[in-house]
Amino acid sequence: MSGVEPVCTKLYFQNVLLPYLKMFTDFLSFMVLFNFIIPVSMYVTVEMQKFLGSFFITWDKDFFDPEIKEGALVNTSDLNEELGQVEYIFTDKTGTLTQNNMEFIECCIDGFQYRHREDSSELDGVCVTDGPVNKVQQKAGTEREELFLRALCLCHTVQVKESTKNGRDQIDQVDGLGADEEVLHPPQKERGFIASSPDEIALVQGAMRYGFTFLGLESKNMKILNRNKDVETYELLHVLNFDPVRRRMSVMVRSKTGDILLFCKGADSSIFPRVRQEEVERIRMHVERNATDGYRTLCVAYKHLSAEEYANADAGLREAKLALQDREEKLMDVYNQVETEMTLIGATAVEDQLQDEAAQTMEALQVAGMKVWVLTGDKMETAKSTCYACGLFKKNTELLELTLRTLEDGGRRREERLHDLLLEYHKKAVQDAPPVKLGITRSWSVASHGFGFIIDGASLSMVLSSSSESNSSLYKNLFLQICQNCTAVLCCRMAPLQKAQIVRLVKNSKGSPITLSIGDGANDVSMILEAHVGIGIKGKEGRQAVKNSDYAIPKLKHLKKLLLAHGHLYYVRIAHLVQYFFYKNLCFILPQFLYQFFCGFSQQPLYDAAYLTMYNICFTSMPILAYSLLEQHICIEVLLDNSTLYREIAKNAMLRWKLFLYWTALGLFHGLVFFFGVRFLFSNPALQDNGQVFGNWSYGTIVFTVLVFTVTLKLALVTQHWTWINHFVIWGSLAFYVFFSFFWGGIIWPFLSHQRLYFVFANMLSSVSAWLVIILLILLSLLPEILLVVLRKPRGPHARQKKQVQSNVGGPQSSARPLLMRTFSDESNTVI
Amino acid sequence: MYSISMWKVGRGRKKKGRGMTGKGELLHPGKDLSVLLTSLFLCSPADCAIKAMVKHEQEESPNRPDNTAFTQQRLPAWQPILSAGIVIPGFVLIGLAFIGVGVGLFITSRDVQVLELDYTGAVATDPCYKCSDPSIKDCKCTMEFHLDTLFRGPVFIYYGLTNYFQNQRKYGISKDDNQLYGDLDTFKSPASECFPYDYDSKSKPIVPCGALANSMFNDTFKLYRMVNGSKKEVPLNGKGIAWWTDQNVKYRNPSGTPLINAFNGTVKPINWPKAAYELDTTDVYNNGFLNQDFLVWMRRAALPDFRKLYRRITKDEYQAGLPVGNYSLEISYNYHVLSFKGKKKLVLSNVSWMGGKNDFLGIAYLVVGSLCVFMSIVMLIVYAKFKFPEED
């Protein structure tokens, strides 16, 4: 008995367990054999491409700003290609779109335009005290002019920042020298103003430019220096504060002569009803023209108050100020009573100076198919005028407003009104709009008379957190759909977190579009972090945004090149990189797979271990890396000039199924050609003229040689931008392969247990048949590529080329798209 | 249209902007403009030079990115322009060249003479049927054949095996390269890959070890020419059938004279009738691991149907080839293949510059060449129809 048991166990092991064990080990062996099809080396190459590629952004001298002496900063290397896929841009307004730097542009006094001439650059210190009035054709009476300028000088809440001690001394000195016109300039130059709103500073500075300088407020006395260099003093009686509902502010002053004057400035809509109508028309024209130019306009009016009137007003104001209840409303009442029957003297136009090339940048981005949303904490009017100024809203853009004002218009509950408005806008913008298929290129002219949507923070929070759950999601959807159908969206009065909320809303919407946030201040950090790509402007508001961003650029205008050129190129590069990698590994492993059918499924590798290892590391990695760093299938200048080119890669156009299948089919085809081409050759393995036969390693080496050459030449066909690096790397890789094969097969390697490849390569090259089959298979593999191009050609629109001709006059990279070069990248462009 | 309007806008803004910029920036619009202009019209090394000049006018700053062609992605680049004027003639040329080569290959391959003799003995009518039973030892059989024309020399004799997976992985690695390199240490302890052909039943090491060596083809052939009813042996040359490097570098006999001394304490592979050192009784140097038949066998075939070089006929009057006449092939039938449905054949062939007979290459070249020509015609039609849109 004791002898039988071990025999039984052994039999059991052999008959029952062994097959399973064999199955398992076979499975593992095949895993080892085929693991190359998953291109692990791709991750390395992709990472290298991204890392090295991001240097090109840092290095780009176009991003260098001489003002801050800094270039672009890349905080991540992971998002280069996302820059080419941006669909939504969320931009901050102040400091991003605008420089937050108001400038007085022109004024209109009594209907006559006073435009400050630019030729005199006041920033150089050459003040224009003698200039402007001379140059302005005398139109309005001097009295009116001076009244207007006094109004500008008095009607504000600006404080004068004391100059430094040094400066003061200097002034004293020059004062001592005599009140000569020219030496009076330094104090003006060094005068700093502080105000809650930069507009007011701009107005005061504007007045200064015309000769009236506000010297400051000293114990309720406002001092101004008039044109004759006389100091005028006014007693400040009351300030009727600005608030966004009244949209105007006033001051009451008592002049030396005892006159009590009320100066009022405010938005045209709030001033015009309160002035005598006969003056309105003359000025309205100017105001409207200025507004359409994107300037922030204010109207200035004044009123003589009789002592009696003043006493009333004074009493009312004091009483209201002391009121314990409803103080605001009572004050408002008094204000409204006082600010009536005024006389309109003029209007001002102040420009919130846009960033350099902000309008062009925005237009280019819109033409490129990106939707620009302005998220700002500013009030609506300001933001709106900026949107107009930088061309986000055009003249004929129909604005859909969803703000507290519109919500309160109907006199009904806000909730109901919100519901109605949303539905109404949705009907307008979404349902009635001409159906626009996604991905289809809309011409930019169509886009120009679209809808603009304006929402403010309060309304947004109502939309996002409606009382009932069902309404909330409905509102969100309506809101999103409306916004997505608008060419530009303006969200004003946003809290920083609301900015992020909006970004998140869009980011998670259908199709999960790629979002980009750009901002300069700490209040933009949340949205920069929320968006896929966060861009910080190296602005004046600290480094918070820069530190939290993925990319930091000095100016808004750099966004254009970052997206249109760098983003576009990197997207195309990485798309090709990824697909090429899968392709080259597919046709690498497919012959090995097919070989299993001819070797009894014994996991016999077709290629030598050295080739298996080196293929992805040395033989084929460098050309694609160089390609993915240097390729410019379209010249950078052309990319910048034709924003529409960006649309051609939108929505991940180059990594679609169709193209993936194309590359896969190509890989399969090549793999089949390689394997079976050599297979048929080896039907008679006597390939040498001395009658000797080739073995399995020769077989593998021939396949591998064809493979390396084909795969590299395929990349050469795709490459459209041959720098010396490309040449070096492509031909160098092939040369290296040949060199390595000789080297590897030329030595008996002491550390190897099998000298499989000893002289296999050299022997292969001594066979004419091997040469011939290698040439044949390489050519055969690359033929369909060319055939495809030829057959596709008639279908491809030539518009794209014409575009290039237009913008690329005389450039050596002319639009003559070479036939053989019109390979993959073009197909993707023309098909979609 | 679009670019023009952009341009206008740009200029408008510039004008306005000038008043606002500070002194340091005054150069800015001008620089922008010149850079824009140069970049618009130039894309060559020349513009790099111009740009460099522009750059130098400004004071340098430590943070300023290097203005080199590489960092600015402005390396002079060549874009291959393969217009129809190049592609179509190129294709025609390539096609014609391929057709030419194809015709040459085809004719060459056609002229190669091949005679295949299947001597497996699978069917009862076969002369070797009696030998196909593995139990019969030292069986010999004879096949007769007739040559109608001169079989041009030099004639190569191959043996061919079918359904024989010499490329099986485990079979293929079942050898010890160090042993075959003459390393005496491995004679005592063969590599583990050789299992189960590393030690015999008495635990004596097998040299050469492993399945590959053990399964060496050991049928032998003798070729007789029938001259006037008598058999005249055709001398077969066993030299030069293996790769020169295999014989001279890759494989080495162990040191020891005579060779038999080195093999002390080892046994021959189980299937071998004779030990490695007595494979060739006629030539001392053709023994051991340097025996050319052994070397040929050890170079594994790529596919399950393969042929290997057995002998060459290069001597005497047969240098010019086998003359017309009757021949008799005497086979020492030792190698049994029917158990795995294999087939054995003997192949007489002469070779050309491209090696043995291979119709595939010639046909493939003709097909691809014609394809090229055909494609160039298609292209020509396409281009004629669409008026060479590339070349206006």
From TrEMBL, chain A:
SUPFAM superfamilies: Calcium ATPase, transmembrane domain M, HAD-like, Metal cation-transporting ATPase, ATP-binding domain N. It is an enzyme of class 7 (translocase). It catalyses: ATP + H2O + phospholipidSide 1 = ADP + phosphate + phospholipidSide 2. Its cofactor is Mg(2+). It is found in: Membrane. Keywords: ATP-binding, Magnesium, Membrane, Metal-binding, Nucleotide-binding, Translocase, Transmembrane, Transmembrane helix. The keyword Nucleotidyltransferase does not apply. Residues 546-793 form the P-type ATPase C-terminal domain. Pfam families: Cation_ATPase (PF13246), PhoLip_ATPase_C (PF16212). Its EC number is 7.6.2.1. The chain crosses the membrane at residues 27-46, 610-630, 659-682, 697-716, 728-749, 769-791. It is a multi-pass membrane protein. PANTHER family: PHOSPHOLIPID-TRANSPORTING ATPASE IG, PROBABLE PHOSPHOLIPID-TRANSPORTING ATPASE. Belongs to the cation transport ATPase (P-type) (TC 3.A.3) family. Type IV subfamily. This is Phospholipid-transporting ATPase. The lineage of its organism: Eukaryota, Metazoa, Chordata, Craniata, Vertebrata.
TrEMBL record, chain B:
Pfam families: CDC50 (PF03381). InterPro entries: CDC50/LEM3_fam. Keywords: Membrane, Transmembrane, Transmembrane helix. It comes from the Eukaryota. The keyword Transmembrane helix applies. Belongs to the CDC50/LEM3 family. This is Cell cycle control protein. The lineage of its organism: Eukaryota, Metazoa, Chordata, Craniata, Vertebrata.
